[in-house]
Amino acid sequence: MLSTKTIEIVKSTAPVLAEKGLEITSHFYKRLFENHPELLNIFNHANQKQGRQQTALANTIYAAATYIDQLEVLLPAVKQIAYKHRSLGVKPEHYPIVGEHLLLAIKEVLGEVASDEIIQAWGAAYGVISQVFIDVENEMYAEAKNQPYGWEGFKKFVVVKKQQENNLITSLYLEPMDKTAVPSFQPGQYITIRLNIPGETYLVNRQYSLSNAPGEKYYRISVKREANNSTPNGKVSNYLHDLLVMGNELDVSAPSGDFYLNEESSAPIYLISGGIGVTPMMSMLNYLKEKQPSREITFIHAAQNGDVHAFKEEKAKLFSELENAHQSLFYNQPTEEDKKHDGFIEGRIQMDWIKTNIRNKNAHFYICGPIPFMRAMIDSLERIGVYDENIHYEFFGPSINLKEYQNV
């Protein structure tokens, strides 16, 4: 337990952390990787270069300072981050290393303001906070390992099929090398794949939603090719598209994540996706076809045009087999070929359309897509009176507050 004095000191630092948080976390990661480059085998290099990891950690530190005496308030965020940590292979032995460098970064950035008393208070607070993460993550590791056909950490899988879905998206079908069955998962969850790309010094990790329903002998992920080959993201997606072939091996974590379909509910649902955000929705839709074919479903999808509209044929087949489902499709830049056919709305999803077409505020809403898209959808749903607890969304990368995220 933290003393009253320690809590007071930590809470008093919240304003300066709000102002200097990003600078502190930038210094932190720089020093961390200089002294422990082996941790680059765990962290997503693209998120580092784009500043997303630094922003997420700054938000987390600020929240910890604000609620250090009410850590239960942070538990939902802790679980979301812990799912990602478990999927990436973060272990208890990493936390002391992180704590040491975080305190050094606070001291380095704040200078004389960071007195010995403040550093000691934050050291004590970090010990308590890190133990919360360790305990939650240990439970998640045990759960992943002890489920039928489960494992802890990473397991060797092999690519058994590659299927091009459209001009930008390719699906990979993955089966365990040891020929065992794969664990079940919640529709909407993701896996981490770990690759050793030729020419790269460190392993690379990427998290991808599973786009098939549970119950198959394989996992399916569907990967968008990043058009700019020079970007960090493009390095991995282009490798998966161009160089990974059937028979290749890769490491896979057990399914993870807190964004998934509530299978126990029969309430109407809206699946709202933009671009590659359609992948977890396909898992949900395939599951619903098998388990809840009469459930009321509205699928709202936004894409640039028909050339990059993924799973068009698969969705059409699923909708023909579902009893109470319909789709609204938006093309922002339809091609001339698109314009020859009906079945889509030209433009973006606008607030007026949402007001007119979404009337059931008690439905559950699942959202995935680019950050600006998700922010717009969440804001629109809240403005028409949908309760926060009925809005569920998936963000790939470090856990952040979409309402506060500025780098969009």
TrEMBL record:
Residues 1-138 form the Globin domain. Heme b binds at H85. This is Flavohemoprotein. The keyword Oxidoreductase applies. FAD binds at Y190, R206, Q207, Y208, S209, F395, F396, G397, P398. PANTHER family: FLAVOHEMOPROTEIN (PTHR43396:SF3). Consists of two distinct domains; an N-terminal heme-containing oxygen-binding domain and a C-terminal reductase domain with binding sites for FAD and NAD(P)H. The lineage of its organism: Bacteria, Bacillati, Bacillota, Bacilli, Bacillales. The gene is hmpA.
